[in-house]
């Protein structure tokens, strides 16, 4: 049961599309219509807003780190690893965006941290 909670929780945290949310909040429109069409920090940088790209990079890394730490703290060490991996999958294949997300670079590094 712990692993299932880690998978679902990690996936849901990972699937938060910070690149899309932040660009919309900054009035930059839909990031999926710019550059590569991905929701990650590299594509957000193509808008010319370094501050929004940096925030996206940080939040994309933080969501995986948070998933891992929460699962490790409240479930087990192994559940933490599973939650981190699930967060990476959630970023790459978010259910909210028809499974079309980012490449997962920042999220991967957040898991490593």
Task: Describe the protein's architecture and organization.
The longest helix is centred in the middle third of the chain and has 25 residues, at 50-74. The chain is built from 6 helices and no strands. It has one domain (2-112). By secondary structure, it is an all-alpha fold. The model has no long low-confidence stretch (mean pLDDT 87).
User: Percent range for helical residues?
Assistant: 55-70%
Q: Name the shape in a single word.
A: elongated
Structural class: mainly alpha
Q: Let me know the average pLDDT.
A: 87
Unreliable stretches (pLDDT < 50, length at least 5) are none
Number of helices: 6
Detail the topology: elements first, then pairings:
Layout: H1 2-14, H2 18-25, H3 41-45, H4 50-74, H5 77-92, H6 105-112
What would the keywords be for this entry?
113 residues; mainly alpha; 6 helices; elongated
Précis, in short:
The protein is built from six helices and no strands. With 113 residues, the protein is mainly alpha-helical. Helix 1 (2-14) runs antiparallel to helix 4, helix 1 packs parallel to helix 5 and helix 4 packs antiparallel against helix 5.
